[in-house]
Design a protein that fits this description.
two-stranded antiparallel sheet
Length: about 300
């Protein structure tokens, strides 16, 4: 499946830029993506997979399409008015919303059908509790799991997160922020507000601290960039790829902790629909400071997830 992601996104972005948006383009995209979708949903023997095994594949396709349209909205806005992205979004809106004549809507309908079939299909359980008194041990697909193992896993995850953040992402430059000094006006419902944009939090005022540290060769950034005589920077692409891989790993671990250590686990759609600042349709963002704690609030609604 991973081999289809980059070609699909690249081709979709090319078509959006070069071909006039018309019914012919919609039909071409639908034929292309549905063909790739059908190929990705086949097993090694050429047979189609069970419905429960294809919902994740369809979700990857639709998520990649959303990322592509987000990139195109940014590109269109940059060429006209960078401050006004609504006009660029409106021109592409029918292509990434449900209940429209589009490939995106078709794939979402297929995913709903596959999920409905999966829910109605009887199957044996993946989990079997061995300890039915204290509920401290269970079998997951035949593998025994102890509750203490989960505690150790979360402790190791925390240690790995700290290591990635301080040694790999910041590269030892120690650009840390004291969370006790962060202020957040929880009653502010203005569009675009968040504690990151609050002028009282001077630590977030400079948005290019990390880039400046890389250009100056501070800490572990010594070999990331070379400033030429004309003032331009020549970047070490191999070092940047390594940094990006570490950053992606840190993001994945953060999502894991947010999903597993925040009470009842939320759905994946709840995580992808979260906003870090207030929007027109959702004036309360999901990332806030409650006292001295950085908090993620689940406030998921299907309409909000579609419209932002």
């Amino acid at each position: 499946m991973d081999g289809y992601v980059i070609p699909v996104v690249a081709l979709l972005a090319f078509l959006l830029r070069k071909v006039p948006r018309s019914e012919e383009l919609a039909n071409a995209l639908q034929t292309l993506l549905e063909g790739l979708q059908g190929r990705a949903n086949q097993d090694q023997g050429g047979m189609f997979k069970e419905p429960k095994d294809i919902t994740n594949t369809i979700a990857k396709f639709t998520y990649c399409m959303c990322l592509t349209f987000l990139m195109e909205i940014q590109n269109c806005a940059a060429s006209t008015d960078p401050e006004d992205q609504h006009k660029a979004c409106d021109s592409l809106l029918p292509w990434f919303t449900k209940k429209t004549l589009s490939t995106f809507a078709c794939l979402c309908s297929l995913q709903h059908h596959a999920s409905a079939i999966s829910y109605d299909t009887m199957g044996l359980p993946k989990i079997w509790w061995k300890d039915t008194e204290n509920w401290t041990s269970m079998l997951f697909k035949g593998e025994e799991i102890q509750f203490g193992d989960l505690c150790s896993m979360f402790a190791d995850t925390e240690a790995r997160l700290v290591e990635l953040w301080e040694q790999c992402v910041l590269n030892g430059t120690a650009q840390l922020i004291d969370e006790l000094c962060i202020v957040d006006d929880l009653t502010n419902r203005e569009v675009g507000y968040s504690f990151v944009a609050d002028p009282r939090n001077t630590a977030f005022k400079c948005k290019v601290q990390l880039i400046q540290a890389a250009l100056a060769g501070e800490g572990g950034f010594a070999h990331y960039a070379t400033v030429l005589a004309d003032g331009k920077a020549q970047w070490n692409k191999r070092a940047l790829r390594t940094w990006l891989q570490d950053y992606a790993e840190m993001g994945a671990l953060l999502l894991l902790r947010a999903e597993m250590l925040s009470g009842a686990p939320g759905q994946g759609t709840e995580l992808t629909a979260m906003t870090y600042c207030n929007t027109k349709t959702w004036p309360t963002c999901n990332l806030v400071m409650l006292g001295n704690h950085l908090t993620i609030l689940y406030q998921y609604m299907k309409m909000t997830a579609l419209t932002g």
